[in-house]
From TrEMBL:
Protein name according to UniProt: Asp23 family, cell envelope-related function
Origin superkingdom: Bacteria
Length: 109
């Protein structure tokens, strides 16, 4: 996952969203889907778990930590992303990470 410190001036909006989501307490990581189908494809790289359409609507797929409340974590993700995109924000919680599991352990990041 991209950290806010590693963003450059030419960062894509999807990379900025990914970094903001990664900073939300309770988020274990972004979820790219079973076959990596949830992603923004950029030249030479991709941002798994984030899709932003031409109008500015964002779809964010996350993995939350098992000990965090899912609704509150999803709401915090939605608020963080809403500050960055002009359109609607849709948050999908795809998996829950246990204490020793890396993000996406259940099938895909």
């Amino acid at each position: 996952m991209i950290s806010m410190e590693r963003l450059t001036a030419d960062a894509d909006p999807a990379e900025i969203v990914a970094a903001a989501v990664g900073a939300v307490p309770g988020v274990a990581g972004l979820y790219g889907g079973l076959f990596g189908e949830v992603a923004t494809h950029l030249v030479g790289r991709r941002v798994p778990g984030v899709r932003i359409d031409d109008v500015g609507n964002a779809e964010v797929h996350v993995v939350v930590h098992w000990d965090q409340p899912v609704p509150a974590t999803a709401y915090a993700v939605r608020r963080a992303v809403a500050r960055l995109v002009p359109g609607e924000v849709h948050v999908v919680v795809d998996d829950v990470a246990g204490p020793a599991e890396p993000a996406g352990h259940g099938g895909g990041a």
